[in-house]
Amino acid sequence: MNARSFLAGIGLCVCAACTTSQGELSPDEALDYCDRQVHRTLEQLQQTEGGTDYTRMPRNILKGETDWNCRKATQDEWCSGFWPGVLWYDYEHTGDEAVRAEAERFTESLQFLSEVPAFDHDLGFLIFCSYGNGYRLTGNPAYKQVILNTADTLATLYRPAVGTILSWPRNVQMFGGHNTIMDNMINLEMLYWAARNGGDKRLAEIATSHADVTMRHHFRPDYTSYHVAVYDTLNGDFLRGCTHQGFSDASMWARGQAWAIYGFTVVYRETHLPVYLDFVQQVADVYLDRLPEDAVPYWDFDAPDIPDAPRDASAAAVVASALLELSTYVSAEKGAHYRKEAVRMLESLGTERYQSREQNRAFLLHSTGHYPANSEIDASIIYADYYYIEALLRLKRLQHGKPVF
Ligand code: GLY
Prior knowledge:
The chain is mostly helical. Helix content is 48%, strand content 7%. The chain contains 14 helices and eight strands. The longest helix is centred in the N-terminal third of the chain and has 19 residues, at 28-46. It is globular. Bound molecules: glycine. Glycine is lined by residues 78, 183, 245, 255, 369.
């Protein structure tokens, strides 16, 4: 079998129109596909009795289902910012004012989060994916204020004795101390942004302290990460690393490692400190070294039933997006490697194996949410779609010689 028929066999696009003149994947076709799926989702949401309920956000489509399961945007629903974010990215690609209007309506139903005390650390996911993209694209000053207020709220979870943000206040007793989860690295971007855009400068210091302590304790010597780091609440001593959503305390949970790659790339962007650039390359390299052939990880790199274990397309989308940014900070040789790996991930996610196409209204199939809780296994999940469209837009910007974000 030659390379072309092999690629066709696994559903990879091999037409000239899908690649640039340099032979790299051209993201336009996949972005247009995302736009079609966005409209199918909007159609579903409009079919609700009384019309679209802008306080309910698409969360997942479970295996075999065709329509989104939506969740009310409450303080404890960490995924509510992703659908508005998807709409903003789709608007960025299409310029479609109807999509922008929908993005605004869904985004604005999250405003309450800037007016209430913090429930947990997910405020960055919630507000920066929605309001953050909205402000970037529209400059709406009301959006800026929501982000600034929410950054202050997130900072109330910072504990100086430890030097990190407390991720889950409700679980201090369960973990036996101050808990910080790797996902929390994603929330730092909003703190840095706020510090640079009129907010308290201390927000950037909090973010960097969080990154520093996380770098010191949240990784094993081989740069694989724990999901959860537990610290003594009073004196800040690191007590133990363990898992919550991964296979075991000693395993590399795929999305946790993905959050680490993405998060430390952002910390380098914001601080320009070489220590983070060196570090994030190690964290990325151990992930890349252990990927299966199609560049989409199993939900945990140490899942005992590999190769039959479910995949996590969301981790692949997060890492593809992060590597495209990271590729612009490292040496030319390493940058070409990271970009090639990111494109390989996007090519794989663009095949009929991973794209939902007619099967359901999402962009992607085969993500895993919380395997140990038997929740969202081999499903379409909204954050996979968010990072997929983000990565495609980043690749497009790079191909046009523009900054990646
Ligand atoms: N932040 C939770 C997760 O990644 O599933």
